[in-house]
């Protein structure tokens, strides 16, 4: 029996996933939680094979929760799922220790398949995502990840990553400072972050510079 813990702050989503999973005779949902503190409290009491973790769970963000999970409960395998595009988060979650990534727009059948695969210690991503990530079949590790950033956005990102301020970026690219601020805001939106530190961390995880 595959034991699953669901971590999502929406009760209706937890119920829906539970019903989908328990329609399969080899899967049992042993707990469901709505916050990261509840998740770690539950893990002191129960030992799931797989934690289904929603990316935007309250308190600590999904990536930080993943790292903590891996550190404190190394035998528990995580399957991340999110309403965010796979392009944005898939690789960074796998790098942080997830065994799989599932978009909430994925077909329901994928949920059961993903939980089974992850419980066996195998990586799960959708075929569409595998093609985009160009996985190396031998090592099951992503080679390189290409985001839909314009060449100018990548240039701005590289300069920001090297520690340059907006004014220096503007001078280096022969732009005005306001235009650089616009590029920066666009980059933050595309990578779903709201500050420069997170922008650079996310960009680094996605190998954007």
Automatic annotation (TrEMBL):
UniProt keywords, alphabetically: DNA-binding, Phosphoprotein
Pfam families, sorted: GerE (PF00196), Response_reg (PF00072)
Signal peptide range: none
Domain of life: Bacteria
UniProt GO molecular function: DNA binding
Domain Response regulatory: 3-119
Listed name of the protein: Two component transcriptional regulator, LuxR family
Single Gene Ontology BP annotation: regulation of DNA-templated transcription
Organism: Flagellimonas pacifica
Domain HTH luxR-type: 142-207
Keyword DNA-binding: yes
Keyword Phosphoprotein belongs to the record: yes
